[in-house]
Amino acid sequence: xxxxxxxxxxxxxxxxVGMDKLIIYLKIEGFFKSPASTRFHGCYQGGxxxxxxxxxxxxxxxxxxxxxxxxxxxxxxxxxxxTYAIAAxxxxxxxxxxxxxxxxxxxxxxxxxxGHAKLSIQRIKGFIELTPLEELMIRFHMGVxxxxxxxxxxxxxxxxxxxxxxxxxxxxKSMANAxxxxxxxxxxxxxxxxxxxxxxxxx
Length: 203
Description:
This protein is 43% helix and 2% strand. By secondary structure, the chain is mostly helical. The protein has one domain. Strands 1-2 form a two-stranded antiparallel ribbon. Strand 1 and strand 2 (107-108) form a beta hairpin. The longest helix is centred in the C-terminal third of the chain and has 19 residues, at 183-201.
């Protein structure tokens, strides 16, 4: 089974309402043919899909006791196979249409909307609902490198990224360290980095 078939099978298996339309979007807009960067990791036709699947494979390879909520500042959060698939396979949907060209080196598409994790979340939510944990994983998949996308703000960061939740339902002590306090968000970031570095080393 090739990369495209595996990704479609994994996403379909989530049975998330609207996923069929999201998959059609990925096909039409070129997700499976897009490079993952202009000249760095995955800078070839299909690099974006390969990178996304690689992150997923790393994420599910090492099971974590996420739901135990052990450790200071952590609390249990629901995680399922669907969570792994949706967060890992779709975290870089923002890159669809981002690069122009038929081969390396690619050029940045200046007409591309701004944003990285925020753009991915926006595009995904146009078709399916994300669980709070899936959104957190996508928001912070770049770790500290992606925090400039989000207003630092004061007070506690909560699962919805705003102040609409009561204090007891919020998670983490600040926007700046929310990714750190949630172990799966940190692990998601590591998987993304490892997959990126591995691709660079294999060039």
